[in-house]
Amino acid sequence: MQIHLAKTDITAIPVDAVVNPANSLGIMGGGVAAALSRKGGPTVQREAMSMAPIAVGAAVVTGAGQLPAKHVIHAPTMEQPGTRIGVENVRRATRAALLAASRYSFDLIAIPGMGTGLGGVDPSDAARAMVDELRAHRGPKPATVYLVDIDDEILSCLEEALRLASG
Prior knowledge:
The chain is an alpha/beta fold. The protein has a single domain (about 1-165), classed as 3-Layer(aba) Sandwich (Leucine Aminopeptidase, subunit E, domain 1), CATH 3.40.220. It is about 40% helix and about 15% strand. Helix 1 packs across helix 2 (about 40-50).
């Protein structure tokens, strides 16, 4: 698997799927989820909510509405919207997103910083957990993962986690 880092808006990436660090109810009211819902349109949230509840550690795939991505992988980091979480939820959500990408044979996906916004996980801890799960993933898909964010601190933490993992 190739892993790239990019400072960009996840709602503007033309990939097979973008990952939504969701809640179990499929409500896309804050953070990355809200941005994906705004740009993708109401069908994305409606479809996610129709598949709820989605357990932390599981993931569902929906269409992407008006987003340039083809699909959205909803991987809950929290059960209720706006809940503070621990880093283990980041690990479980990242693993679930990768397994969903593999199951749907997505070649190219984009993952934002998971759990660092509303979830309140320290960006450095979240980055290490995400990179650990990327390194542990053994499926042939996704072939390429873009770790993306618009926040410099999160990108710096992801870059450091990648450097430590490969060193």
